[in-house]
Task: inverse folding
């Protein structure tokens, strides 16, 4: 009987995740959970209260959009939990995703882990889309947060005072 490998071929190496030129941000059209309900990220304004997993309501301090060509990943509806995400979602391969299932234990050695979407590729439910041109909306908070976006829990880094992501 063949072991259940979630679509991954035995012995196949995952391609290295390129992060040297990776940008952080949510793809335009992503629905972000706010105090006023789900709002597409491109319609947010500074001062909007964003619902976060780690700190509740947090005011958005800055935001800007950039157009990039990045490796993209498609996460199929329901592949990270019963309704996570609620529909097929595209994210940059470098987007950090909070996982709280068997993947966290297998890839992060803990009950929950924040991992790049590119590390979650299984070629069945989470697939590589290759390089894609996309508009990313970069959110600025005073501290790193996990936000609810399209039914996913996505990590957003803190922004420095100049608007660049803090390391």
Result:
């Amino acid at each position: 009987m063949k072991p259940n490998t979630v679509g991954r071929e035995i012995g196949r190496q995952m391609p290295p995740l390129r992060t040297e030129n990776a940008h952080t941000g949510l793809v335009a059209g992503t629905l972000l959970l706010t105090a006023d309900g789900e709002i597409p990220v491109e319609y947010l304004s500074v001062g909007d209260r964003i619902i976060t997993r780690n700190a509740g309501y947090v005011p958005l301090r800055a935001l800007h959009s950039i157009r990039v060509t990045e490796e993209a990943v498609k996460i199929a509806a329901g592949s990270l939990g019963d309704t996570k995400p609620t529909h097929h979602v595209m994210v940059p391969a470098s987007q950090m995703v909070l996982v709280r299932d068997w993947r966290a234990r297998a890839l992060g050695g803990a009950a929950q882990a924040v991992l790049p979407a590119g590390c979650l590729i299984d070629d069945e439910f989470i697939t590589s889309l290759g390089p894609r041109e996309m508009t990313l909306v970069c959110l600025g908070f005073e501290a790193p947060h996990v936000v609810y976006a399209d039914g996913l829990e996505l990590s957003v880094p803190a922004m420095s005072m100049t608007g660049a992501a803090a390391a």
